[in-house]
Amino acid sequence: MEHMQEAMKSTISREQRITEKSAKRQSILCPAKLNLGLKVFPKRDDGYHDIDSWFVPLSLSDTLILEDSAQPELKLTGLAAGISTRFEDNLAGRAAIAMADIAGRSAHVRIHIDKLIPTGGGLGGGSSDAAGTILALRSLWQMDISTEKMATAALKIGSDVPFFIHGVSARCMGRGERMTPLRRMAPLFAVLIVPPRGTSTADVYREFDRMPTTNDRTLNYDKIVNAPAGIIDEFIFNDLQAPAFAVAPWLRELHEAAAAAIGQAVHMSGSGSTLFTLHDRADESESATERLRNSIGSAAELLPVRVRTS
Q: Where are the domains of the chain?
């Protein structure tokens, strides 16, 4: 319940994400994200895939605290099982090293991540933590660096990281680094259906590459950006859903059970394994949460969240 209350906190602007600011310490909220639709194009010569997707940040966030220290340090609390605490292996640690290289200094910083975002579910927690590190270190180290330069550094860490630098609802193309802000006027809510295990992004993309390319659908942003949740349900799709279900048949079973329980569309975010439903009002998402809990029980964690739509 405490986790759910955290997830339902009010939407915040990018400027408000830094919650504590001093000469030696910075605290910043690092939001999760959903893909509201995901078009994937064939593999490029460099091994990456171009995408077209509506990325939206959520009210569910990790909290990142950074302080200057005598040496690089990383501490993880919360939902951190299975995450490496080796500084160089963690995306936040790699982001600190990248910013130190730009600043011409050593990455002597203590990073404490209190994780509320489930890992391995396609919610972008690690990428968001990396972006939060970049933003916080710019302030902590008083770096004169533009948002564009931060986004360029972020792309070298991971394809989703530039989105979290900007932290607003956006159409993301290329590897995800080409962004056009999408402002939605009406509120939007979701119920996250988070299985206890994840899917391998590499395996899902390999399966996508093996499958015949027959999908010529495109995301119609004019129809979905300011539409009610039910209309969004009709028009969004995820090209990685079929490959993910092929790699992880248990995820298909969970999807079918959730859809039957709730009587409406259930979507997948990114390469999985998080599934979600969309709602126009908070009370609708809370009702859906109860129906799902009564049906699928402990098969997944259920998190009602608010979509940050501006």
A: 2-181, 189-306
Residue 34 burial (10 A CB sphere; 0-12, 13-18, 19+): buried
Catalytic position from the list 62, 129, 160, 239: 160
What does the pLDDT look like over 12-67, one tens digit per residue? Answer: 444 446 666 666 899 999 999 999 999 999 999 999 999 999 999 999 999 999 99
Which residue in the list 9, 33, 114, 144 is annotated as catalytic?
33
Backbone angles phi, psi at 150, to 5 degrees: -65, -40
Q: Does domain 2-181 have CATH number 3.40.50.2000?
A: no
21 counts as catalytic: no
pTM above 0.85, yes or no: yes
Task: Specify whether 46 is catalytic.
Answer: no
